Amino acid sequence: MWFAGVASVQFLAPGVLAWVVAASLALALGFARDRALRLLRRVRVLMFAIVLLFGWFTPGEAMFASWPRLSPSREGMMLALVHGGRLIAVVCAVALLLERLPVERLVGGLYCLSRPFSVIGLRAGDLALRLMLVLRFVEASPRGSATHWKDWLRDAGDDGELQPVRLVRERLGPLDVAIAAALGLLGLAALSWGLPWAA
After folding, report:
1. Cα–Cα distance for residue pair 24/54, rounded to 1 Å
2. 160: left (phi over 0), alpha (psi -120 to 50) or beta
């Protein structure tokens, strides 16, 4: 359901997206304030890049007619607002998810969901283990510190030993199967709606 919610944000109209961004910000700041602020701080450079690239490199009418060569375009700034809003909504959703769901259960759920893809060569166990290690080191890094990625490869414990990684294998229950089937059918319906022969 979380994946479907995040994916649906990409298709919302700008007016609806504004309400979704406001609601997601209110929920994230209300229930996961520290984590949401930390994640929003970490994407500030990406937000700046979105504004810069869309605002100044999208053709259109200049926002400041007095300086047409230096001004961003109105169309570009609208695109920047839309894409920036989508990013903020997703970051807030990530903050809420990580605040309410332990990392072990999150990775275990992803392991369970990715197991059917083993028929095409995806190794769910390796994927889960790598994700668990990344999340552990990212969460363990001090706030605001400029830790180099090579430091993560060194021993993280005071005693020179890394703590063992425990993978919780989640099982799909009847409600999980029903929700997955409903979301799959909705996805197929949405996909077929846009196909030429469905018109």
Report:
1. 24
2. left
Residue carrying structure tokens 């392991």: 111
Give the global pTM.
0.70
pLDDT score, position 129: 78
Q: What is the pLDDT of residues 13-48, one digit of tens each?
A: 999 999 999 999 999 999 999 999 998 998 999 999
92, 68 in Cβ contact below 8 A?
A: no
Which of 167, 25, 17 lies closest to 95, judged by CA? 25
Collapse the DSSP code of 62 into the 3-class scheme (helix H, G, I; strand E, B; otherwise coil) and give the result. strand
Are the beta carbons of 43 and 89 closer than 8 angstroms? no
Dihedral angle, C-alpha 14, 16, 20, 23, nearest 10 °: 120
For residue 199, name the pLDDT band (cuts at 50, 70, 90).
very low
Give CA–CA dist 16/116, Å, rounded. 35
CA distance readout (Å), 95 to 8, 122, 149, 181, 188:
18, 27, 23, 26, 29
**Helix or strand run (H / E) with residue 34:** helix 33-42
pLDDT at 67 over 60: yes
Q: How many CB atoms lie within 10 A of CB 84?
A: 19
